[in-house]
Write a structure and sequence with these properties.
The complex is a heterodimer of chains A (about 350) and B (about 90). Chain A is about 30% helix and about 15% strand. Chain A has about 350 residues and is of the alpha/beta class. Chain A has 2 domains: about 60 residues, Alpha-Beta Plaits (2-Layer Sandwich); about 250 residues, Alpha-Beta Barrel (TIM Barrel), CATH 3.20.20.70. Chain A has an 8-stranded parallel beta barrel, surrounded by 6 helices. Chain A has a 4-stranded antiparallel β-sheet with strand order 2-3-1-4, with helices on one face. In chain A, strands 5-6 form a two-stranded antiparallel sheet. In chain A, strand 9, helix 4 and strand 10 form a beta-alpha-beta unit. In chain A, helix 2 runs parallel beside helix 3 and helix 9 packs parallel to helix 10. With about 90 residues, chain B is mostly helical. In chain B, about 85% of the residues lie in helices and about 0% in strands. Chain B is elongated and about 65 Å long. The termini of chain B are far apart. The chains are: A alpha/beta (about 350), B mainly alpha (about 90). The interface between A and B is medium-sized, with 17 and 17 residues.
Amino acid sequence: MIIVTQAGITPDALDRIVEHVEAAGMRTHLIRGEQRTVIGCIGDDALLADQGLRSLPGVEDVLPVLKPYKLASREFSAGRTTIALGDPSGTVIGGKDVVVIAGPCSVEGAEMLRETARAVQESGARMLRGGAFKPRSSPYAFQGLGIPALSMLAEVRRESGMPIVTEVLDPRHVELVAAHADVLQIGARNMQNFPLLTEVGKVHRPVLLKRGLSATISELLMAAEYIMAQGNGSVILCERGIRTYETATRNTLDVAAVPVLKRETHLPVIVDPSHAGGRADLVTPLALAGIAAGADGLIVEVHPDPVHARSDAEQTISFSAFAALMAGVSAVAAAVGRSAPAGQPAGQRTAA
Amino acid sequence: MTAAMAQDIARLREEVKRIDADLVSLLAERMSVVREIGQLKRASAMPIADPPREAAVVSHAARCARGEGLPENEVRELFWKIVALSRSEQHP
């Protein structure tokens, strides 16, 4: 539930209400709006049933939060969550700029990663993706380079100034990956891996949470809630297509999920057009649809030689196709009142 | 980055390292006091868990945090962790 306090409540009165709620075994989250402060109460609402909250000084109203997610819900935040990456370019996810994350599905070597970083940065990508640990449907498929790939990502991060997004698969690897990456990705197949969500919640590093192949929007938000319940509020949601009866595409991009999520939560939402369609020719149209629907960014698979990519070759696009995609992104972003950063000479904004 | 700036960062990082060591020492001191309270609680057959007291401890920390201009929600979270640690220290 949330407690709406009276306008101009004194800090002392606010403390007393919070203490009252926490003494009953709940936790609180203060949301300071322009007009008034709202106290979000986290835990079993039944604990507060007979606490006479309405009669406490400074309480204006007590409202139930009917959604199962609390910290992720719109009611629990005064505004939209923005996530600053702290990189030399000042990248912020969830702000006015549409942020594009691009890079190879898997890191295959330092040189291909460097080359990709340079190309996508020149076209306007702000962040670099690259898989070190890969969850593959087949145990015999390429599983990623693992720890050496993390070092390569860190090296290219240093050279290019681009923040790194990479997936963490195993709760035992969370600290290791967090030591190299700016954003920890939880893949679609791990969206409901609750021990993993709990671990990434503890490291206080932004998390890119992908929607599960057959997860509802509510389940996606509950997964975000797991991370946030550990104190890590920097969660970026990612719509990456869901499984439907359609076989012409790998998955079906749920475009409507973007505006629905924007209404339900204060967290930023991005779209993965590569996995959604599973086909290179669909990446641009799906990317543009995502931006048009209000997405805060994209995550796109790009490779110097897509045909020979060691994973996801069929949905990976080339540098030139990515440049064309970015031109479209700028136009659509402008049409919906957003902006997309222009390309920049690679490495120029590296920390001095 | 100039050499002087790099030197400044290195010096400030040393300072952070010292502060962290102090924080851990203070935490250890807090735990030893808390264990004493635990013994007294057991001697007088009081329950170890005391939710209103815990809430008051966190509230006090939040008030101090406000005075220092620190973010309140985050300091509250930190202190709930410390309170949980203290509670487990009180169990024999």
